[in-house]
Amino acid sequence: MYKLLIVEDDQDMAAALKKLLEKWGFNSVICRDFENILKTFEEEAPHIVLMDINVPAFDGFYWCKKIRELSSVPIIFCSSRDSNLDIVMAINNGGDDYIQKPFDSHVLIAKLQAMVRRTYEYRTVETPLIECNDVFLNLNDTKIYYQNENLELTKNEFKIIKTMMENKGKVVTRDSLMKQLWNDDIYVNENTLSVNINRLRNRLKEIGVHDFVQTKKGIGYIIK
Fold first, then answer.
1. Is residue 38 located within the same domain as residue 136?
2. Whether the Cβ atoms of residue 72 and residue 96 lie closer than 8 Å to each other
3. Which of 21, 41, 76, 116 has CA 20 to 30 A from 223's CA?
4. Residues 86, 53 contacting (CB under 8 angstroms)
């Protein structure tokens, strides 16, 4: 069953959409926190987002753009606004389709089913994200994302954090990390790895991520 996130501040409309979508086999979730829609998106990990434009705090264009920084999940705008400029803005900010309210329920369902087929059934999509403790690593742009912040990593920082996140809950030895970073015959002082780890930790703190990579004294490092 595909999960669909409904971003709609009209409670009656949201409830009606949820009922309709579940009738057609979608697992529907209504967003309740309009101050941080991105957090709800990360927690629910939906297959499709149905996004209104006129939502509190920031509009749907803003949240669509923020989601696009993390994911390529399909986003369909569903709004009473009908100007060509709104449609253009929706697409330019990362939207995949636009349907105007009031809409025919059969048209909406047909669009959603077509989106599912194109995205999930006609081809295999590999997610470019690794997640640990609400921290996301995007393998495509080598950036770390946490809540509303992001950080562009250097080549060595990316190699370190990717290895650590892929082995969450396991100790990664210093020797293993050294080989990941400097896989050649040139001698590298072990202190160089410590410098890289400390720099990475300090940079993660800048976006609010603390105690992410922990030291196992005499062995290596771990993300718990």
1. no
2. no
3. 41
4. yes
Task: Report residue 53 CA to chain centroid gap.
Answer: 20
User: In total, how many domains does the chain have?
Assistant: 2
Q: In whole numbers, what is the pLDDT of the chain averaged over residues?
A: 87
Cβ atoms within 10 Å of 183's Cβ, excluding its own: 9
- 34 and 78 co-located in one domain: yes
β-pair partners for 131: 136
* Predicted confidence (pLDDT) at residue 126 exceeds the cutoff of 70: no
Residue 146 and residue 114 share a domain: no
Do 18 and 112 have their domain in common?
yes
As a whole number of angstroms, the distance between CA 121 and CA 113 comes to 10
Sheet holding 135-138, edge to edge: 129-132, 135-138, 143-146, 149-152
- CA–CA separation, 5 and 15 (whole Å): 12
Q: What is the pLDDT of residues 155-181, one digit of tens each?
A: 889 989 999 998 988 999 988 888 877
User: What residue numbers bound the domain in which 61 lies?
Assistant: 3-121
DSSP H helices in the chain:
11-23, 37-44, 60-68, 84-92, 105-116, 155-166, 174-181, 190-206
Beta-carbon-side half-sphere exposure of residue 94 (alpha carbons within 13 Å): 21
